[in-house]
């Protein structure tokens, strides 16, 4: 599934290390006082490898992810504005890099800070209700350009033994993100005209951060669920003692 490869970059990046050092980078010693710097190098090495696909992990090359659906609601009552975005394709995620790693190897906890210069999104949307004192029911195409994307991913695992090797079982994963600059809008509107489309786009761009805030809860849940699923797959394949030694 090509569209999920970019998510796998996030998920697999925190499982560095096998005997193939060109793929996973160096093994990191828990005795090293700079172990987080070692993990940072190894994780980014794996990110670079996954950008070209990793058939041995079931990952095909791709630069986009798919989010099935997100909804927002502005205002209450029967005329409150509501919009649903479907088949959201986000591209540019592969350009994200890990800028910082914090770990507690005694409790098997990891926090990654990631940065991406630019992500583009396209989707179909439908809306209902009143916006800017005008009934804005209908549908069309949504576009978004996001600059300066920062994300934090936290996960915790529990070690277990299988075939005399140590693996991690994912226990918890959380994430959050922010965007420095946003441009977004709608086009090809149904049941609309050029004046309403211009008014909608002015409202959307003037309130872009607030609209993103409305989208965040669903978006975080969706991304966390997808990342957890793929991370579980990768942790099941790569022994923990292949990427952390001693």
From TrEMBL:
One Gene Ontology term from the biological process aspect of the record: circadian rhythm
Pfam families: JHBP
SMART domains in UniProt: JHBP
GO CC term (a single one): extracellular space
Signal peptide: 1-19
InterPro entries linked to this entry: Haemolymph_juvenile_hormone-bd (IPR010562), To_sf (IPR038606)
Keywords in alphabetical order: Biological rhythms, Signal
Family, per entry: Belongs to the TO family.
Protein name (database record): Takeout/JHBP like protein
Taxonomic source organism: Papilio polytes (Common mormon)
């Amino acid at each position: 599934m090509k569209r999920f490869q970019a998510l796998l970059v996030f998920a697999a990046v925190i499982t560095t290390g096998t005997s193939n050092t060109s793929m996973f980078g160096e093994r990191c010693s828990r005795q090293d006082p700079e172990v987080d710097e070692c993990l940072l190098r190894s994780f980014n090495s794996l990110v670079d490898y996954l950008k070209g696909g990793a058939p041995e992990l079931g990952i095909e090359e791709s630069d986009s992810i798919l989010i099935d659906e997100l909804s927002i609601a502005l205002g209450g009552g029967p005329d409150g504005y509501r919009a649903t975005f479907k088949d959201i394709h986000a591209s540019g995620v592969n350009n994200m890099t890990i800028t910082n790693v914090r770990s507690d190897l005694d409790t098997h906890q990891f926090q990654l800070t990631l940065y991406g210069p630019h992500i583009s999104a396209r989707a179909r949307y439908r809306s209902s209700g009143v916006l800017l004192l005008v009934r804005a029911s209908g549908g069309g195409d949504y576009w978004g350009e996001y600059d300066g994307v920062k994300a934090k991913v936290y996960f915790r695992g529990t070690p277990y033994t299988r075939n005399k090797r140590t693996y991690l079982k994912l226990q918890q994963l959380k994430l959050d993100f922010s965007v420095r600059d946003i441009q977004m809008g709608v086009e090809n509107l149904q049941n609309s005209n050029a004046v309403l489309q211009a008014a909608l786009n002015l409202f959307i761009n003037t309130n872009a951060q607030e609209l993103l805030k409305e989208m965040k809860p669903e978006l975080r849940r969706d991304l966390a669920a997808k990342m957890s699923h793929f991370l579980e797959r990768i942790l099941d394949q790569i022994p923990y003692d292949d990427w952390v030694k001693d």
